[in-house]
Request: fold
Amino acid sequence: AGSFSQTSTGWITNKDHPPVTVQLKLSGKFDAESKQLDAILNVNLEGDWKTYWRSPGESGVAPVFKWEDDSTNIADVIWSWPAPKRYPVLGIETLGYKHEIHFPIAISVNDPTKEAVLRGTITLPSCTSICVLTDYPVDLFFTANDLTVDNDIAFEYQQALGAVPVLITAEQVKQKQNNLTINELDSYWDQINQQVVVKIKNQVNWKNADIFIDLIGEEYETTFFSKPKISVSEKTLIASFDVSSWGGDVNLSQVKIHATVIDDNLAVELVSETSNNPIIFSGSESNIFTMFLFALLGGLILNVMPCVLPVLGMKLSSVLGAHGLEKSKIRRQFLASSAGIITSFWLLAGFLLLLKFSGQALGWGIQFQNPYFIAVMVIITAIFAANMLGVI
Reply:
């Protein structure tokens, strides 16, 4: 038995669930330095059946391979994941695969000169309008040093590996230690709004980008990310994700997140730690000159609004009434008026900051839902109207 190897499971079926079949096979390619052997897990799903990514979304279960209890001379089994697709189900976003999926597997052995037995169970979820968890037994035995390379399987493995996003850390991006086009990466955690915001700069323009966020670790199994809101300006992409959890609010500050980004001719998995520094969109069109133009346009529109237009008449009347006054007095009046406007807005800003620091939820205009505020505004408007009519 020591010289005999079984390097493929063949296609495994389960009579209780025939639409899905799986196969695990070794390529025979062994790296003596890392003691790793290349393998490939093929999954076929008929019709509309789908299975899930490592982070399946709010509905679904990730596939698992339990091999630890029954295997011998096996140090580790590393499962790599091709980029997923989105499959909404009843308004819930799920992430996974349909039809044919090829998962690259790296098998590490303790001693390549001795026989290794890889024995365990692949538990694969598959769903259409219903979901089924199916077990597939795996039983392979081989001696790593005695294997010969099967070129066809080795080619399949390389193709499968090409569908797996390239892993890049924030430090590699910062040090420009990657051969791809990503040159800037930031992530931010907004505790109040329970949002993760990711900013990525590319050396080329984004075209049809999509991005998936997941967290590695059992403590985050009940933390879910919404479909992102993506803003793109040529080479800059900003994506914001609403975060939810069955346990209520979460705190993802200084947590390592994995952002899998897919675009034309690009598939990368970017690893960064969330900071508390807000990300500001600063695309090429958002320069200071453009901001001033929009501010000027906004001011012009505001001044012809019904709530502001009468005030222009009042100011014009005061300007005409200043005829014959000393220039120094006119200047003092204009400076006093400007100082009053600026002071009023600073007082308003300070009041809003105090409310925010006290933990209040703010939204401009929400005060008009308060009957006491409306009553005060009615009184002020009545006094203002009386003054305009000459009563006061």
